[in-house]
Structure formats: C-alpha cells, structure tokens
Amino acid sequence: MSKVKVARKSTRIDMTAMSDVTVLLLTFFMLTSTFVKKEPVQVKTPGSVSEFKIPDTNILQILIDPKGKVFMSLDKQGDMVSTLTSVGDEYGISFSKEEILKFKLQKTFGVPIKNLKGYLALPAGEQDKILQELGIPTDSTDNQFKAWVKNARLSNKDLRIAIKADQKTPYKVIKSVMTSLQDLNENRYNLITSLKVESSAKK
Amino acid sequence: MAEIQSNEGGGKKKKGGSKQKKISVHVDFTPMVDMNMLLITFFMLCTSLSKPQTMEITMPTNKDTDKDKMSEVKASQAINILLTGGDSIYYYEGLPPYKDYTGLKLSSYDASGLRAFLLKRNIDAVTQINELKKKKLDLKISSKDYTEQVSKIKNGKGTPTVIIKATDEATYKNLIDVLDEMAICNIGKYVIDKIAPGDKFLVKNWQSKGNYSSNFAN
Question: Which residues in chain B have their CB less than 8 angstroms from residue A43's CB?
Fold first, then answer.
C-alpha cells in the first residue's frame, strides 16, 4: 500500500551561538593571561603566603637554578642593548651591530663575557643547549654578575630586581647573590614565590 | 563559506502582486568555531594565568656601618633563628647560650614549631592586628588606615626583633619559609644576617649535647 515516509530532517546545527561563546572565551584568555617566558632552566619557586603581585615592566629578573647557575633577563630590549655595550666597555670587548641585534632578541642571558661572542655566533637551537651549562660567574674573584647588575641599573633607573630561585638552591648561592647586590647598594628587591594556600595561618 | 539561499527559483509560482524577493542569509559558522577553538587551545597552552607572587625585602646597607647609626637590639627582644641543613631549624632568645646547650631550641617549620613560638612571643601585636582585621572586614576602617595602623603595631615597642641566620647547607626554601613565618606572625622587625662562627658552635654544641662547651671549659 502506501509507503512509510521518513521525514527528512536537516542535520545542520546553527553554530552562531557556539561561535559567540568561543570568541568570548578567546577574549578572556587574551586579556587575562601572560605569555610564558622561555627560561633555560626549569625553576620551581617555593610557596609563600605573600599576596603582592610582581609588576609587569622594568624588571630585572635573576634566575638561579638548583645547581647555583645564575641567569638574568630584562624585559626591555633597549635596556638589553645599553647594558650589553656598557658591560662590553668594562671588559674591553666591543660588539658588532649583528651581535647586538642577536643579543637583543635573547629572552634570558647568562654567559661568561669571554664566551659571549662565540655564543652569539651559534644558531638559536645550539644556544639553548649550551646556555644551560653556562651561567654568569658570581665568585668573588671574577664577579661578572655585579657588572651586569650595575650596568643594567645605569641604563634604567626604575629597574626592580627580582630573584627567582629554585626551592632546592643552597643558601650559599643565594648569599653570594645577595652580598653582591648589597655591595652595589641594591637593598630592596623582590623574591619571587608561588602562592601557597595557608588555611591555618591566621587563627 | 556563506551561502545565500534564495527562495525564488524552482517551479514555484510567483504571485503576481509582490515583486520583493525573499532572501534568507545563512552563514555557516562551523569553520569559525574550529578556528576559535584552535586559538583558545593555543592560548591555554602557551600562556599562564597566574602572575607569580613576590615578597619584598629590604636588606641593611653596607655603607653605614657607624656604630651610632646601627640600632642595638635589646637582648630581651632578640630572637635568633638558625637555619641549618636537613631542614632543621634552631632558635635562641637573647644572648647566645654558649655555656648551656639547652638554651638553643630545636624547632620545625610546621605550625606547631616556630610559628607557635613566634605567635606566643608576639601575642600583643597579633591580637591587635586581628582586631583591626575584623574592623576592616566590617568596613569600620578604610584599608589605608588599616595598613597604617598595622605597620605602627608591627614596629611598636615590645615587639620582638628576629635575626635570621642561615648556614650554607640551608636551602632557599628554608629562607622563604622563615620569611613567611614573619609575615604570618606579624613580625615587623627582622633581618637576614650572616652566620657567625659562634652560631655554628652553638649548633654543634647542641648536637653533641653540651660536650663541646665542657671540652672548651676544661
């Protein structure tokens, strides 16, 4: 007799609402988050109850890994260039335009000044591998760390110093960094920590 | 991929009167959603939402080492904290107890250790600050007044002064933990100092249960 007619339904879904949601989410992420900086060593900062947030700009970050290697990063490229040239002057090394340009693009630096020219000549992939093994010398006989901090301060007066060190870093290294800073009369600085939830803190 | 479907075609009859064409505009948003999802994933993986916390510390200068400018601490208000390797922590109150090893106390980083002791020592300031905090929660005082009063209480008379000394074997975490305790116990006056040979002696003396000092006496 008569055939059973199956109604044809369209499977098309209106994606407009979905799109709205995703755009909203995207805007949220773009506005609230900050990009993760590439760091040569993985550092796990100790937790604290401190609630101060670190400002975004004018930061001289001193990165100390568990083995005691010291790296530094500046957030403004202009500061990087002027710091490099003045440190170079101090050690009697002049850098070519190309080398300065390469240095400017570094996220983190931490190479003994003698090796810096050779380091900058390397391709980027190799630089990352080598950087982990190097670090700025902080010993009392050859304290290049001091020179870097001093010249960074000269190039930017509003610089804030922030120390980011691993939980397991021996105090010996921290002490040498702190005394170097003290010698330079840099007496206020920040210690970067991660948030610790302390429920029993205040009774 | 916008498709514009017009209903005018086909064999449907047009009614003579109305000449307006009905055009429905359907835009397919699926690729747009795909792209957005990709971007979201990218942002979620490559960025971090939380900014790191920081602690601001002020160290004493090297420049003014004149005796009259340096503030002397009353022995009754001084607490020395010694951080040593293996996450152990010692403290003594007042003058270093060179003769009696029991003057040095072994403590711990958890709430029942150092914190309990410091809260007890700083009980006046802690209770006052807690009252202030309540007032602030009830919106009785502004947060500016609050911070002003808190710093006044913290640096007031009778609050203990803590001297933190760490040996080379201590870790960075130990230092941060102790600085944290200072914040929790509302201690306004604290300083990080270099460890003196006398302090190392104290620790050794404690570990050998007083043998060290009796050897010296003989």
Answer: none
